[in-house]
Amino acid sequence: MTGDFNLDGVPIRDTFAEAFDMKATRLIVTAADQRWCHDAAMAMVGFGTSVIACGVEIAIERVLHESETPDQRPGIAILAFAVSGRELEKQIPRRAGQCILTCPTASIYGGMMRDGINAGRSSIPKRIPLGKSLRFFGDGYQISKSITLVDEAGRDQVRRYWRIPVMDGEFVCEHDVGRVDAIGGGNFILFGRCLSSVTIACRAAVDAMSPLPGIITPFPGGATRSGSKVGSKYPSVFASTNDRFCPSLRGQTDSLLPDDAAVAIEIVLDGLTADEIRSAMNAGIRAACKAKSDSGRKLIGITAGNYGGQLGRHHFHLRDVLKDGP
Q1: 191 near 253, Cβ under 8 Å?
Q2: 3-class secondary structure for 258-319?
Q3: What is the pLDDT of residues 246-294, one digit of tens each?
Q4: Contact 118/26 with Cβ under 8 angstroms?
Q5: What pTM, to 2 d.p., does this model score?
């Protein structure tokens, strides 16, 4: 690949990742111990890779210390993204009811306005029903309690919680949770001569991004081999294989692969803000460029996916993303 610039010996195309507007919420799942908490969170984020078919893109943001959770128990922060507030309002109560309500000892709270979880956001987010919907499972035995808390801007907030009787005691959940404007579709694509070199670079990139706040990489292992383009020759199919990055179709399509590339894997990320996506892409690309396989092989190129600016208004130019050091 003849790149437009170079980082640690890896050619990088001078192009941009095209991203689009989304709505997002942060949820805090807690439980009596970390294992139950993990079990509940993993169930809730299952089947959450792409809004194309899953309704939401949802994944674990980070594990929380007990001091960071509303009930001082082990916790996990989850981020969920959808194309509209209406879709979040449909998906979040459904997942919480099937995956958190059912998990022994688990509780669920909103995480958009809590100290240390939502630094930098001072606006009051719009709300998504949660306990407002789930309380009916209590069959009339549920009770609510309101608590006044002070938010990060020093304003009083009334937070309402529901206590729903279940067989291990009570399921506690917040009445509703905040949602904010967000961004989906930040991405970069890794090229290599062999699967091993791309796998190692991909995992190094995801590992470098995972500790950063405000972003998720919702695909399996943080990556996708089925990078897609908008549309298809079949009218009923919204998205189809990105043929220009498929090695087996080289010669049959206008390929964008380097001549010696045998593998391409894409990393897609969603973020609460453009700055958080930019920081994550910087960390991920730098880690990928440094990575080597056991045989010493590195990536042979990196690019980003876009549709010429026709899909989304957020453009993350790789040169600009990488202009600052790690």
Answers
A1: no
A2: CCCCCEEEEEEEEECCHHHHHHHHHHHHHHHHHCCCCCCCCCCEEECCCCCCCCCCEEEEHH
A3: 999 999 999 999 999 999 999 999 999 999 999 999 999 999 999 998 8
A4: yes
A5: 0.93
Taking the C-alpha atoms of residue 41 and residue 43, their distance in angstroms, rounded to an integer, is: 5
- CB within 8 A of 310, min separation 6: which ones? none
User: What beta strand segments (E) does the chain contain?
Assistant: 5-7, 10-12, 16-30, 57-64, 75-82, 107-110, 126-129, 143-150, 156-166, 169-174, 176-192, 215-216, 223-224, 228-230, 239-241, 263-271, 301-303, 314-317
Q: What is the DSSP letter of 97?
A: I
Q: Which residue ranges of the chain lie beneath pLDDT 50?
A: 114-116, 119-122
- Give the integer Cα–Cα distance in Å for 273 and 181: 8
CA–CA gap between residue 325 and residue 306 (Å, rounded): 24
C-alpha 207/C-alpha 201 separation (Å) is: 10
For residues 69 and 109, what is the distance between their CA atoms, to the nearest angstrom?
9
**Region at 9 (left for phi over 0; alpha for psi -120 to 50; beta for the rest):** left
Q: Residues 6 or more apart from 154 whose CB is under 8 A from it?
A: none
Task: Choose among 86, 108, 91, 105: nearest CA to 177.
Answer: 108
**Residue 178: how many other CB atoms lie within 10 Å:** 22
Q: Using an 8 Å Cβ cutoff, are 288 and 8 in contact? A: no
Q: Which two tokens stand for residue 136?
A: 């009916």
